[in-house]
Predict the structure.
Amino acid sequence: MAARLPRPHRFDRYVALAGLLGGLLLWGIGLGMRPAGEPTVLWAGRWPLLLPLAVMAGCELLRRTVPRTALLTATGAIVLDLMTQGNLVTVLMYTDVMYAAVLYGSPASARRIPRITGLLTVAGTIVPFAIWRVPETLLIGAAVGVVAFAPASTGLIVRNHREAAEAARLRAEQTALLAEMDRTQAVVAERARVARELHDMVANHLSAIAIHSTAALSLDDPETSKQALGVIRENSVEGLAEMRRLIGILRDDSGDSEPAAAPTLDGLGALADTARANGLDVTVDAEHGEKLPAPVELAAYRIVQESLTNALKHAGPGRVTVTLRQLDGLLGIAVTSPYGDRDGPRAPGSGAGLIGMRERAALLGGSFEAGPEDSARGKIWAVRATLPLVDVEGVTE
């Protein structure tokens, strides 16, 4: 079954109809391009003008859908028109078909047609002049240039501008897509950062509240209940203060007030005192420089804080040791606690604390590991992290 030609574009139908009517008008009033007695006119009279005019109008219908076929057919029609008295509208429609062949044709055709018409223009200028040596023959090359080379070059220029505009549009869309991806990644990273901060700040206090409230409910001892309530109140107040600080940072967009200072390693003593008040036997051995990068200090503080929270929830009875050492551009952190079942009540854990500590170390290009180990004092749970002290500019914990 033969392939069916695409339906002509609406604009092409209007162009073809206008060209056909205009050519018929010139034909009706008897206006030709050359007199009937000219030697180049092989078919004199008015009727031969209609065939190339009709064929050219048909080519206008195909100028956009099959531009190469339209151009080849139109070239035959213009050659046929040259053998008659000629119709100006037929020539004008040929220039439009030439323009459309470059604009809507394949990339190969868009490159070749201007070159071919350019060579024909040069040949039409040089060869007739070389043969007849008459200045008027130069007009042949000029006519070829106006009818063929000029519309082909115009079509190439318009095509290049359209392709450049399309490329710019695609680049703009890609840039917008990349910007949206960056924005999404930034939102995800910020949500993860807030989740780590919220977990590290509040989990310690809530764990202490859960453990002491369970103890107060399980023991029928007024003194123990009173002590437990005191610890619960203290952790509730501190946890509320931490929550207010974080909410203040998130909501303060006026720029009128300074954000609350992030915790530093100078606060390890107070952190240990809080852990001792919650029932842990904590020993801190910290040796580090006075000026550490702020992201490193915050990450180290949060890792120690979360390790103490985990010890409060899961560690067996015994000493919890916190060790910090600075050596060769690295800050080493080690928190060890007894590994085993605890006698008292436990607080549930979700595993988010270990994930947060590992993320903090990874963001700074450091390492993190946690798990049970054998030691001189028996089975222990050890949290070890190494944080580099260089190349941390711009890192936000």
Q: What stands out?
A: The chain has two domains: 10-174, 265-272+279-397.
